Structures are given as structure tokens and as C-alpha cells.
Amino acid sequence: MAAVAPVVSDLVDFLNASPTAFHAVDEAKRRLKAAGFAQLSEREEWAGLEPGRKYFFTRNHSTIVAFAIGAKYVAGNGFHIIGAHTDSPCLKLKPVSKVTKGGYLEVGVQTYGGGLWYTWFDRDLTVAGRVIIREKRDGGVSYTHKLVRVQEPILRIPTLAIHLDRTISSEGLKVNNQNHLVPVLATSIKNEMQKIVGENGPKESSENKNMKHHPLLLQLIAKEANCEPDEICDFELQLCDTQPSAVAGAMKEFIFSGRLDNLCMSFCSLKALIDSTSAEHSLDNESGVRMVALFDHEEVGSDSAQGAGSPAMLDALSRITGSFNSSNSKLLEKAIQRSFLVSADMAHALHPNYMDKHEENHQPKLHGGLVIKHNANQRYATNAVTAFIFREIAERHQLPIQDFVVRNDMACGSTIGPILASGVGIRTVDIGAPQLSMHSIREMCAVDDISHSYEHFKAYFEEFTELDSKVKVDY
């Protein structure tokens, strides 16, 4: 049995550190800083950017953009970008989450994205996300953002016994998202008993001040945030599985994990950028800008201030170009036409129990390498030129590559690719590593495809400038 590749173990660590988009950005930020990337603020000027240096910025702490400027870069040169997303389908707490019925304390949640919600039943769940905390400092008050994650399982969405739903075997599980997706936090009787026991201890100051959420839940969150419950001003929390990601299968050939879509591509692109720019002279001959953009809200259409539908990427390209030459406003348009985007989002692998869901000539398989996604109706932004460039990089390094189109009698999903291609005007190829159980609380992919993806992305960063100089279109 082959040993697990370091890149695979590193991905598992990344997944386990990233229960939410906020945590994924925080982990990416930590890795970038360790690799010598300097943090920028979108609120400040970027006048001091230098060739050969590396930078990043965050937006809403759920989107992150990192870039390395080639030592030979001049304003108007191209950007070589990999775009992915940090969010995954999940259950998010409602603004008023306090639900009490039938002797239970429950937590109201809303569905985010197109999840396979039946997979969330009977799982050991917890909460994670960010809280806004009021702090007293130097005689005044400030408000800080903190990430929290309750480690132990505190929630569960129990299924109904088959004896009370005799049609489930013949008609399947029919989930009403409003009525059935309500996790149990505690029983009312235990909660009341705990209050009596604690009467002589600290008072639950949040009880009367915040009636939106169960005081018990606020206490658990406050403990993680190292604050008092009544210092919590607001939060964005979601449910997540407590079972860790793992290398699994009889031959240790799979990764079993939540959020592979799309933290797998986020990780591989981030690691490729870091490693392709880490050597002392790695940017000496680079005339472009290598960039990774990891966006929030892809699962719900990307229409937000931090989604791919926002001006975030165009703003970054404009500010980088302008920091090197602010006198020529046409250089940005020139740079965009010299740029290239790899839209990296996980792909649907052939399922052995549902072979008819793929057509015969387009059946991406696990271990088969990255999948180039095609759609004549522009649900994917790939064309012959962009597919060739990405495929040529694979052939140069003997990396496997696959193709996918959806069946003509099935609807096709989409990605950030068409959004950025149309919004920015950048050449784009849509690709992704193959996986099974997409949008389940527990997904799976192949360890070989992690190595293939990382190597392919790293080669793209290192070789695109030279390869693109040989591609002649629009001459």
C-alpha cells in the first residue's frame, strides 16, 4: 500500500482547519504569511507594490486574493489566475434561532445552497463561524470579529423512526426543509435543571438582553470566543459535521470529507501559488502576475460584495496595474487581454451505481486527473483555445486530463468561470477534480487527483507566460 503523499496530508489538515469559509480564509491567510506574502488592505493605497514581491488581501474575511508579481513585470502585462470558492452548502443559523417545542430546545436554521439535506440527519453536529464582540478598551468600546468553533458535538437532526413513516421504503425520504431540518440542542427539563443548579453562580446575563437565541447556545459560543454572553453583538454561524476529514478506503486511495467542493480546489491552487513562488529566484524570469482568488457565495450565485459577481477581481487587477503606471488608463484593458483564468471547481465523477447519468464519451473517473468542462450554452467558459492551453500543460508533464459535457437531456450546473469571463473579459477554462457525493455532508475524491491537481496548477503558474507567447489568436 503506497504511502500518502505529503500534499494529500496537507489537504486533510487544511480541510480539518476549515469548517466554514471564514476559517478557510483564516487558514489560507496563515499559510500565506508564513510563505512571505504581505497583507494589504482594500481601504488603503497600494502605491508601494514591487516586482518580485508577494501580497494578499481579504474581503469580508470570507474571500481572499493572493498574488505574486514577476520580477520583470511592467504595467499592462497579464495576470495568470486560478479562481475557486470557499463556501459549501450548509445549514446556517437564523437571525432568531430560538425554537422551543415538544419539550426540546431546538435551533432554527436556513438552508444555504443546494445541499443534499437528507445527509445531515443523524450526524454529530456542532456550530462554527464568526461573532461580533463588544470589548471595553482604554475607557472606550470597540467591536471585534472573532472566529469560533465548538469542538464537541452539541446538535443533531434525528430522523423519524420507520415505524412512524411506513411509506419511506417505497416512496423515499421526503424532507420538508422548514419542519424537519431543525436540530436538537437539549431537552427543556435538563436545561431548567441546570439553571436551578447554577442559581448561586454567575447569572445568565444574556437571558433578558438577547431573546433571539437560547442562552445555553450563547454560553457555548461565548466560551469559545472567550467573552461573556452579553458581549456578543451578532454572529454568522453554521452547522458543521464533527467527524474529521480522513484518507480512507481499503487501499487508502480516497479522501472522505465534507466541503471538498470546493476547498479541495482552493487548497490545491493556494499551495501551487505558494510553492511556485517560494524559491529565491522563482519570480526572476516572470513578467506576469500569478494570482489565486478564492471567492465566497459561489453556491448561491456569487452576487454579493465578496462573490465572484462583485468587482473584487477587477478591482485587484486595476489597482495592481495602476500602482505601476497610473497615467495610462488603457493599460488595464491591455492586461486583461493578456490574462488567463483557470476556474477551478470540483467535477462530477462517474458513479458506478448511476452509469446512465453520464454519456459514454464523457465519463470522468477518479484517479483520472483534472476534468476540462465544456458546455456549448456557456454554462462553462471553456473554448478550444483555453482548453488547448490547459491540456498542453498536462501533456508537457505527463499528467492525465479528462473532458466532460453534461448529457443533452440533463440540466448543466455552472461556476464562477462564466461570471468572471463575461464580467472581466478574461480568457477562461473551467476545470475541476472529479469527486462523488457532491453537496453531501460527506463527500469523497481520490488522493491521486489531489497530486495531479497540485502539479498541474503549479506547472500552469510556472509555464503559462512562455506557452501563451506561442498561441496566436486575433492577429
Quick overview:
By secondary structure, this protein is of the alpha/beta class. The chain is built from twelve helices and 20 strands. A nine-stranded mixed beta sheet has the order 1-2-3-13-4-14-18-16-17, sandwiched between helices. It has a five-stranded mixed beta sheet with strand order 11-12-20-19-15.
Jot down its keywords.
475 residues, alpha/beta, nine-stranded mixed β-sheet, five-stranded mixed β-sheet, 12 helices, 28% helix
Provide structural commentary:
This protein is α/β, with parallel strands linked by helices and 475 residues long. 28% of the residues lie in helices and 26% in strands. The chain has helices at residues 6-16, 21-34, 168-171, 188-197, 206-209, 215-225, 260-276, 312-324, 331-337, 384-396, 416-424, 447-468, and strands spanning 38-39, 54-59, 63-69, 79-85, 90-101, 104-112, 125-137, 140-149, 184-187, 232-241, 246-248, 254-257, 289-295, 340-344, 347-348, 370-373, 401-404, 427-432, 434-436, 443-446. Strands 1-2-3-13-4-14-18-16-17 form a nine-stranded mixed sheet, sandwiched between helices. A five-stranded mixed sheet has the order 11-12-20-19-15. A three-stranded antiparallel sheet has the order 5-6-9. The radius of gyration is 24 Å and the shape is globular. The chain starts with 5 loop residues before the first helix and ends in a 7-residue tail after the last helix.
Number of helices: 12
Strand content: 25-35%
Total count of strands: 20
Share of residues in helices: 25-40%
For the largest beta-sheet, the strand count, sense and barrel status come to: 9 strands, mixed
Arithmetic mean pLDDT: 94
The structure class reads: alpha/beta
In what order do the strands lie side by side in the largest sheet? Answer: 1-2-3-13-4-14-18-16-17
List segments where confidence is low: pLDDT < 50 over at least 5 consecutive residues: 200-208
Separation of the first and last Cα atoms:
52 Å
Categorize the overall geometry.
Answer: globular
Rg, alpha carbons: 24 Å
